[in-house]
Design goal:
- Helix content is 13%, strand content 28%.
- It is an alpha/beta fold.
- The chain has 2 domains: 48 residues, no CATH class; 115 residues, no CATH class.
- The strands form 3 sheets. It has a 6-stranded parallel β-sheet, with no helix packed on it. The chain has a 3-stranded parallel β-sheet with strand order 5-8-10, with no helix packed on it. Strands 3-6 form a two-stranded parallel ribbon.
- The longest helix has 18 residues.
- It is elongated.
- The N and C termini lie far apart (52 Å).
Length: 172
């Protein structure tokens, strides 16, 4: 039981372990309350699911892991830096997770980057054409160009045909 109780930060089991710990704590309080003959665990079962916003760095990112919520992995490309780089390995966890790429210059990004349990890829290109290579992102099923003023190309999508969205943009 102690091993399970310590999994609160685990991407897969974290929310369940947190709920388990809350129930155990509520049971302990109830058992130590004079005159307590029973109780309800309804409030002990409520676990807040937090959506994470994770920012990629200019180095190789291998420790960015989402949680139980709908997490967003933010990558930015400018003339000064690029944060979606070869060797990046991202894990979304539970929820519907998004890779959000924003570029202000022409770019070809994502080659040799990897992602799992990330279901959406969203791109905004405002300073040049963007090619977003998703060969290493095995679970992407929705791609979106949002607010782009330049063309966006999504390449290397897995075997399933994704949902394609183009919103608030004057390019495709």
């Amino acid at each position: 039981m102690n091993d399970y109780a310590n999994l609160t930060s685990d991407a897969t089991y974290g929310s369940y372990a947190t709920s388990f710990n809350a129930k155990v704590a509520a049971g302990l309080v109830q058992s130590q309350t004079t005159g307590a003959a029973g109780g309800a665990y309804a409030s002990a079962d409520v676990v807040a699911v937090v959506n994470k916003s994770l920012t990629l760095t200019t180095g190789v990112d291998t420790t960015l892991v989402g949680g139980a919520g709908d997490d967003t992995f933010n990558a930015t490309n400018t003339t000064a830096s690029t944060t979606l780089t070869a060797g990046d390995s991202l894990v979304g966890g539970a929820g519907t997770d998004t890779l959000q790429v924003t570029t202000t210059v022409a770019a070809d990004l994502g080659a040799s980057a990897f992602g799992s349990s990330i279901e959406k890829a969203t791109a905004t290109a405002t300073g040049g054409v963007l090619t977003l290579r998703l060969d290493g992102f095995t679970d992407v099923d929705t791609v979106t160009s949002q607010g782009s003023t330049e063309n966006v190309t999504f390449q290397g999508l897995a075997t399933k045909i994704p949902t394609i969205n183009v919103t608030g943009t004057n390019k495709t």
